[in-house]
Amino acid sequence: MASSASDDRDRCGPLDRLLGAFSDVRPGEGARALMMLANIFLILVSYYIIKTVREPLILNTEVPEFLQALGIRGPAEVKTYAAAGQALVLMLFIPAYSWFASRVDRMRLIVGVTLFFVANIVAFALAVTLGVPFVGVAFYVWVGFFSLSVIAQFWSYANDIYSKDAGNRLFPIIGIGMTAGTPVGAWIAAQLFKAHVPVQTLLYVSAALLFGSLALYVVVNRGAHHADPGGSAGAAMATGDGFSLVLRNRYIGLIALLLVVLNIVNTTGEYILSDLVVEEAKALAASDAAFDKNGYIGAFYGSYFFWVNVAAVLLQAFVTSRLVKRFGLAGVLFALPLTALAAYGFVAVGATMAIVRWAKTAENSTDYSVMNTARQLLWLPTTREEKYKAKQAVDSFFVRLGDLAAAFVVFAGTAWVALGASGFAIVNLGFIVLWLALAVALVRRNRALCADGSC
Fold it and tell me: Taking 80 as the threshold, does the pLDDT of residue 152 lie above it?
């Protein structure tokens, strides 16, 4: 075994050795891994420009009087309740995605879905230019399923072309592109906001970046196709709906339930932060008639996203692969709920905006790095149809279902109980206990599947 490992190191090229600083890279694996890293990097830069644009568009939306009469006080609540609209759209999108996936090969699936989203971004840019009413709400709903769908599709493809052994070793490296793309995208957006670049221009930039990711898919897919002697890469998948695949598989059902709980916790935390930011902006505007609320909120979120993702890059590059190597799936699956447990514990005992910001920074940076890798590793022992169709349903609809449940939590906490930030943090602590129990069940089921040879 030692001789074999030594032979592998001798046959590794310079790129393999370079990436080997982050994880175990075998001879010839570096080039494809680097292209996959670059691909998800472009996708995340595009998304984080969009995500930063989303915040001022939704948080500066005027709440109609009839909604105020229902107890919806301001745009922070509208932002949270928009999860309901996202869930409804996804109920239509997932069956359509499954239908399309059953009729085309994987490359046509990727190209078709990506071009669909590029066209959507251009349409929203035109709507902003024309001043279409409530475009911020519609854009927020769209971003909610775009972000999850386009990223889920990338990782479905990665799960399709890598074995479990290669995925365990290379997904932490590929994930560096994801975590590196987020601070770069947030930084670009923050600088453009500070330079007063129009929102629609930022959207055109993001559309161009997303379109550019297709070129990398084409190059990677050629190599993957040549390495596929069975020809499955060029074949359409069997018929079947993503929702039905989730419901009939206990393991995938556990993944879906875990992500629901995860997003209840995360979205409730985002509400706590958003509400504090809006109140701060209102207070500053009240004391200065020339104060730019749009610029303040955009700059705050640009900076916030930047530091979240700088921390995520460091965790992804230097911590994630070591957790996988030392503890396996459990090492990365338990990291986020334990971090969230500590973060909301701090918020529960004293929630100034600074405390909430840095608690959310710790939570989100772990989510975008260590937990993101755990979520992808969970799918390695599944079938090809499950990797694309069920994963698309889980990573989009069930995630948004968690957001919808969080909307109810926020509504109940604001309209019925009048909870403050500390009260919402205590509610989150209860959900985190359930989250830990689900993680235990998933680790056990994953080990059983691998023992049966599914891995």
Answer: yes
